[in-house]
Amino acid sequence: MTFEYAPAPESRSIVSIKPKYGHFINGSFVAGKKHFPTINPATEEILSHISLGGASDVDKAVMAAQKAYTKTWSKLTGKERGKYLYRIARILQERAREFAVLETLDNGKPIRETRDIDIPLVAAHFFYHAGWADKLDYAGLGHSPAPYGVAGQIIPWNFPLLMLAWKVAPALATGNTVVLKPAETTSLTALLFAEVCQQAELPDGVVNIVTGDGSTGAAIVNHPGIHKIAFTGSTDVGKKIARAIASTDKKATLELGGKGANIVFDDAPVDETVEGIVNGIFFNQGHVCCAGSRLIVQESIAEEIIEKLKVRMAKIRVGDPLDKNTDLGAINSKEQLNKINELSAVGDAEGAERWSPQCTLSNKGYWFAPTIFTGVTQAHRIAQEEIFGPVLSVLTFRTPQEAIDKANNSPFGLSAGIWSEKGSRIFWASQHLKAGVIWANTFNKFDPASPFGGYKESGWGREGGKHGLAAYLKNGKETGAK
Amino acid sequence: MATKKESRVEVKKTYKLFINGAFPRSESGRVFEVTAKNGEFIANPALASHKDLRDAVTAARAAQSGWSKATAYNRGQILYRIAEMLEGRANQFESEIALSSQINSAKAKSLVAQAIDRWVWYAGWSDKLQAVSGATNPVSGPFFNFSISEPQGVVAIAASDNFLEFIDALGAAVVSGNTSIVLVPGGLAVPAMSFAEVLATSDLPAGVINILTGSLDELAPWAASHMDIDGFDISGIQKKKQGALKEAGAENLKRIHSFESGKTPARILAFMESKTVWHSVGV
To answer: How far is the CA of A95 from the CAs of A26, A44, A409, B39, in angstroms?
Structure first.
């Protein structure tokens, strides 16, 4: 006898999407010249048309941000700035369901995640940073640390509103003003956030949002009125930004790619570990820079773990992102689906063994079944390159040192996981892993109080916590810098 | 290096490189001339080559694990030992600096005293860095979450020709557990290689500090593009030449920083990475 879930769709009547959007500059929506469609990746339905920002739009936004910085925002005390952030946090909580549904429509991620993870974390980020605004003297960065001025912020499509919060909240708390560009495929929640800024009566020009593509982002990076760049996205683009600002005085924080190692020792609690592996790679369709995309499991328990993992994967519900029972939603874009298909084909060609559970995928929209590759070696491209999809590469090890060596054998260094019941082993492994965020007996946990960011080619700087403030303050880590 | 001519013929020192705890000549066989203010010949230090740089990086990488895993107390003691050795040879450094740079001997004396005191200042940071840079983070959930700072790995330094600035850059890089390659220009080669002799007698493990003398115009771009160097202190490079180095360093997203002279823990932290660990809490 099989039990089937009845469909449990979340209503989309809570959102109203306009047919066309402009940019948000100096407190008002400004019509754009050219537009491009934004779609629901689960259905390919066109949701709206987004303005393609050009150099002149970016210029207007930077001018507005500069003016707001000199005329209003830098003249406010931290206490007053903080109250605006508290207002924003509260309005986000009030309108949380609307944001969750809109995010799911535009991004394709399950409503369970937008409702329970993305949007609550967004509000938490503003609430956390609101309290910092009048306490910056105590952040360990010296007395009266000063903001840079105008921050140019470019964010990705995997956690659209959450990445906005990670960027905007600390920038405003530290006294900077903002020109933000959301990702090309996921602008809608950023534009709804502009309405929140209006409702919070945030002074005009403190937050400006210019939508567009890579060329819009480049215009922000290269604008002489920008003092600080904050970018989350691919390592390739991160390196381009690093080169573009090399001969300028612009500062940058870069949150880039990863190939997270999830290490399972032979004394790990098996059922919890299997849940952790699933959460590590299938959370948000694997569109996570810190995903546990390399499972590095001790040889003696590899067979048991993989067998149980397959049983668990067969229970993952792939489908309508608005359905409250859905675990795995749609791939965000056709381009990303092509990339996942391409790298998976390389996995086949290089001799790894592919497995996916039986699941029916809709023929509309962009879908990819949860997938594991076993028999992967370090030389395989699927063990080295970021796939950014629901695809897990499984490697094995015999000795703890071998596990560390394999985990660290990557140009990235963003995240890692450790599964073991032995406390001393967990501490030993966490000391030896070259990664900025390490989860022991858990994975993919985020919190505004917890710094996030990577070693090596995973980027520069940290976001969140006390450490994240340094990225937006002159007396932070750059004290004494020429 | 007596300045007064005596009937006895002085025994002069051969200036070589300092790589992996040894004093090799440049594999290239190249040297350059250092002269005094009055043009008098002082020494022919080695003009380090690209291959010498690669050898130094290999040595620094091999020494990385041991130095970064040494206890902070142990690192602090070894670095303090270096200050003891410096103090004993203060006169030598004063006369070398006065001879090979443009400053008089009174200023050289004060500079060396400052440099020794500065080195002691850095040595003491080894077991205090976590107290000022770390944090326990009150996350919303059943987790014990903390952040600590770790050394980045291998840090190159393009030193200015000032001995105190050389000390600042090097002390900041190695106290946290980084291993380093210092690129030393011009007349600073003379006291820098005497500093290498101090290092060689201070129980500092081989490869933790490597010193290459030569031309920064040659050496710095090689270091900037080297894929096994994690951080680069370019304080000794003119501002107009820094952009090209940062551009080359973007290939592996090197952490490249430039500082004014002066003591600040921010300089140490600039070559460290923050690591955040989440531990599940439960029974």
So the answer is: 23, 26, 44, 77
CB atoms within 10 A of CB A30: 16
Picking from A430, A477, A478 by the largest number of B CB atoms within 10 A of its own CB, the best residue to mutate is: A477
Q: What is the DSSP letter of A20?
A: B
All residues of chain A having their beta carbon less than 8 Å from the beta carbon of residue B273 are 436, 455
pLDDT digits (tens, 9 = 90+) for A422-447: 999 999 999 999 999 999 999 999 99
Catalytic residue at A289? Answer: yes
A272 belongs to the catalytic site? no
- Top CATH class, B34-280: alpha beta
Looking at domain A23-256+458-472, its CATH architecture is: 3-Layer(aba) Sandwich (3.40)
Where in the sequence of chain A do the CATH 3.40.605.10 domains occur? Answer: 23-256+458-472
CB B56 within 8 A of CB B209: no
- Interchain contact, A476 vs B274, CB within 8 Å: no
The DSSP bridge pattern shows strands B135-136 and A353-355 to be unpaired
Q: Note if the pTM is more than 0.90.
A: yes
Q: What is the pLDDT of residues A295-346, one digit of tens each?
A: 999 999 999 999 999 999 999 999 999 999 999 999 999 999 999 999 999 9
Residue of A10, A113, A289, A463 with catalytic role: A289
Beta pairing, strands B209-214 & A23-25: unpaired
Q: How far, in Å, CA of B32 to CA of B267, rounded?
A: 31
pLDDT of A240 strictly over 70? yes
Half-sphere exposure of A283 (CA within 13 A, CB side): 23
Contact B250 A243 (CB under 8 A): yes
Round to whole Å and give the CA distance between A145 and A136: 7
Pick from B258, B267, B276: CB nearest A451: B276
Tell me if A331 sits within 8 A of A367, measured CB to CB. Answer: yes
A203-210 average pLDDT score: 98
Query: CA nearest A242 in B: which residue?
Result: B250
Alpha-carbon gap, residue B171 to B177, rounded angstroms = 10
Is the Cβ pair A467, B135 closer than 8 Å? yes
Give the mean model confidence (pLDDT) for residues B52-78: 98
Topology of domain A261-447, CATH: Aldehyde Dehydrogenase; Chain A, domain 2 (3.40.309)
For B229-248, write each residue's pLDDT tens digit.
999 999 999 999 999 999 99
**Region(s) of chain A under CATH 3.40.309.10:** 261-447
List beta partners, residue B268.
none
